[in-house]
Amino acid sequence: MAALIAPLARLLDSDLFYSFRRSPVTVLSALVGLVCLVGAGLAPWLAPHDPFDLASLNLIDAFKPPAWMAEGDGTYPLGTDDQGRDVLSAIMYGARISLLVGICSVIFSTLLGVGLGLVAGYLGGTVDGLLMRIADIQLTFPSILIALLVDGVVRAVLPREVHDQIALFVVIFAIGISAWPQFARTVRSSTLVERNKEYVLAARVIGLSRLHIMLTHVLPNVLGPVLVIATLNLGNAIISEATLSFLGVGVPPTEPSLGTLIRIGNDFLFSGEWWITIFPGVALIAMVLSVNLLGDWLRDALNPKLR
Amino acid sequence: MFAFILSRILQAIPVMLVVAFISFAMFAYVGDPVSIMLGQDFTEAQRQALIAGLGLDQPFFVQFAKFIGNAVQGEFGLSYRLSRPVAELIGERAPATLELAFCAAGIALVVGVAMGVYTGLYRNSWLSRALLTFSLVGVSLPPFLIGILLILVFSVWLGWLPSFGRGDVVQLGWWSTGFLTWSGLKALVLPSITLGLFQLTLIMRLVRAEMLEVLRTDYIKFARARGLSNRAVNFGHALKNTLVPVITIAGLQLGGIIAFAIVTETVFQWPGMGLLFIQSVSAADIPVMAAYLMLIALVFVTINLAVDLLYYAVDPRLRIGRGQGH
Amino acid sequence: MQPILPSPSRERDGAPILEVRDLRVEFPTRRGTLRALDGVSFSIMPGEVLGVVGESGAGKSMTGAAIIGLLEPPGRIAGGQILLHGRRIDNLRYEAMRKIRGKEIGAIFQDPLTTLNPLYTVGDQLVETMLTHLPIGAAEARKRAIGWLEMVGIPAAAQRVDSYPHEFSGGMRQRVVIALALCAEPRMVVADEPTTALDVSIQAQIIALLKTLAREKGMAMMLVTHDMGVIAETADRVAVMYAGRIAEIGPVRSVVKAPRHPYSEGLMASIPPLDRKVDHLAQIEGAMPRLSAIPPGCAFNPRCPHVFDRCRVERPELLETTATRAACWLYDPASAKQAPEALRHG
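The joint structure predicted for all components is written out below.
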C-alpha cells in the first residue's frame, strides 16, 4: 500500500498537478476528453442502438429531430438520419473510428519521427543531412496535401475492392507519414544537445554501444517535448482524418467516422435536418478542442520558462 | 542583393526537381494510363500507337527529361477523366482559387496580426483572454466544419449570403473575376472567412508568442528605460522585431491557404483548382494530380523566395555593406 | 524611518539628487510573499558616484530597477519612498514616470550585445530618444547624435552614426549605450553592471569614460557592480548589500580599507591584494540565504564570525561607526556588554 501511496502523493503535490488543478479549463477539457474516450471506446456497450444492425433500422424512423423538439422521439435523443439511424449511436461509433485513426497515426508518426530524429542527431553527417533535407521539403507542404496525395496514389495503384479493405490503414499511413518531420526535428535538435553532454561522453568512455546510449540516455531526455508534440498532433490527426473522410477519400463508408457522418449530413443541411450534420460536428469539435487544450497546458507546464 | 536572390533561386531548384520527380513517378508508374484512356474497346495497334504517343516506350531518363521539358512549358498532357489538356483545365480554374486565396490571406494577415499584437501587449485583459480562447477554438475547428456552420447560419437560417458557387463573374481576357459584381463579392464572403480563419488564428497565436518573447528582451527594457513612448516601444521596437520570425511562418501558412482551398472549395462548390484536384484524386486522374502538385510546389517556392527577400528588407544583420567596421 | 544625512566625509552644497527612504520591494509567489528589498535607504548628491556592491541576489539590481520604475512584474514597491530632486517618484503613474526615464534618470544595462535594438541604426536610436525628451528638431538631433558618439569616444562618428549595432564591437556598443543613456541629459544615472559583460581590457576604458562624463556633467550616479576594483576606482561612497538590505554604507576609502560590518570585512578580505603576495584568500563560510529563508535577527548571523545572542533575535538598523554606518549590533553601545570586547571597533 505504502509503495503505491507515496508516488501518488508525490504526483498530487507536484507542480504539474498543481498547475493542472489551478486551471479550470484544463480540468474541464480533461473531463470532456475522458467522456469522449469512454463514449467512443465503449460504444458497443453504451450506445442506445446499433447503427450497423440493418435489421433494426426502420425508414419510418428516418429524419426524426432531436428528442426535445416537437416531433422528437425519446428513444433517439439526438434524432435520426435519412436511414432512420440513431444519430447519438452513430456519433459514438464514428468517434471510435476517428479516435482509432487519430491515435494510431500519431503513434506511427511518433515512432517514425523519433526513430529518424535519433538516428539523424546521433549519427550526423550524410544521413543527418539527407533526412533533414527530406523533412524540410515535406514540411514545405501542408500535411493534408501529403495525406491526399498518398491516398490518391494508393487508390490508383490498388484495385477498388482491395483499397476498401485496407482503407483504414491507408488513412493511418497517409496521416502518420505527413507528421513525422516535426518529431524528427525536435528529437534531432535535443539529441545534438544531449550528445555532447558529459554523461553521454562518460557512457561512451566506459564503452557502451551507441544504440544502448541512444535508448537509455538520450531518449528519456527528449520524451517531454515529444509528448507535447504528440498531444498537439493528436488533435491535428483527428482533424486530418475528418477532413479526408469529409472529402470522401478517407475511411470507407461502411465504417463511417465523424467526418463521414458530417459529409452525409451535409446533404440535408438545406432541407432543414441540421442535426444530422451538426451533432457529429459538435462531437468532433469537443474532442479536438479538449485534446488541444490539454496539449497546450502540457506544453506550458513542462516549459516553466514560457509561463 | 542580386547574388542573394540568385543563391535562393538555386536552392529552390532541387526542391522543384524532387517534386517533379515524384510527379513524374506518379505519372509514369502509377495506374495504367493507357488502358484508362482507351476505355473498353481498342485494338492492339491503337494501344501501341498511344504508348508511343505518350512516349511510354522510351528509357526512364528520356521520359523524365521530356516530362520536365513539358512541365516548364506548362504541358501536362490530357486529363484521364475529362480528356482535355490539363493546362487548360487548370487555367480555367486558377482565377477562382487565386481570388479566394487572396481574400482569405488578406483577412488572415490583417486581422491575425492586429489580434496577435493586442493579445501580446495586453495579455491579461478580458478581451485578450476571449480572443485567445477563440483562437484555440479556431485551431480546433476543422475548416470544413467552419464552412458548414457558416452556411447553416448565414445561408440556411438568415439567408443573407449564398452558400455555393462564385456568383456572377466578369471575363477580363482569360481571367474571370468575381470582384466586379455584387453577387460575386457576396459569394466570396463565406468561403474567404472559412479558408482564412484557421490561418488567422495561427498567425494571431504566433504574433502573440513572438510579442511576449520580444517584450522580455533587454533592448525593449532599455527602450523603456530611455523613456520612449509606449507606442514607439510597442510598435516601433517590439512589433518590428517580431516580424522576422512571423514573416517566415506566416509565409508558409499563406502557402497552406492554396492547399486548404481544396476543402473550402468542396464545401462551397467553388469552381477552383482544389475542387478539380479532389475530383481527380477520387478518379485517380494522375496527370491532373501531378500538374497540381507541381503548381503547388511552384507557389511554395515563390512564397519562400518572397519571404527571404522580406527578411532581407527587415533585418539589417543579413545585409553586408555600409559602414564596414569590426 | 529616519532622514538620511549626507555622510560627513563628503558634505556638499544643496540637496541630494536622489533619496531612497526605507524602500521595500515584494514579490508575491505561490508560496507566499518574498521580500526582495527591505528598508533600503540612501541618498546621492550632485556629482557623486555611489557604488552598490554585494553578491548576486543581494538586491543591487533590484534597487536600480525600482528607482527607474521598471521592476519586473509581479515585483512591486510595497513601502518606502523614492525622491528625485525632493519629489516623490515611486508613486507616479506610468506615463508620468516615462517622462522622467531617460530625461531625468538615465539607465545603463549590463550586456551591450542585447540592449540595442538590432533593427535600427545607432543614430536612429539616439535621435528617437532625443526627440522624445528634448524640444529640438530632427536635424539638430542628428547633429547632437554625432556629437554624443564623439563624446563617448567612437571614431569617425559622422560615418558610424548610420551603422547598425551588429557592426560595432562589444566595447563600442557599450559606449553607444552610454551615449543613449545620457543623450537627453539626465542629472542622475543608474548603471547596472556596466562593465561585467566586457573584456577586462575594455572595462577600464568604460569606467574611465563614465567617471569623466559624470564629473563633467555634474551627474549623480548609482553604480551597481560586484567588482570591488571598479568601485574602488570610481565610487565616492559605497553601499554594501546583503540579502535585500544595506549592510554598510560610507566613504569608499573607509569601506574598502577599514570595513566595519563583518560581511564587508569578509568581502574586502576576499579581494586579492596587488601589493603583496598571499598564500590563500580569505573567504566567508556558507552562502547568502535565499529570500524565502532569511533567518530572524541579522540576516548575516549564520555566517558571522562575531555573532552573539542579540544578532539571532533582533534586526540591526544602520548604526554610526567611525567613518561608515553599519547594520551590526557590534556598534550599539547598548549591546556592548554582550559583544566580545576585543572585537569592538567603536
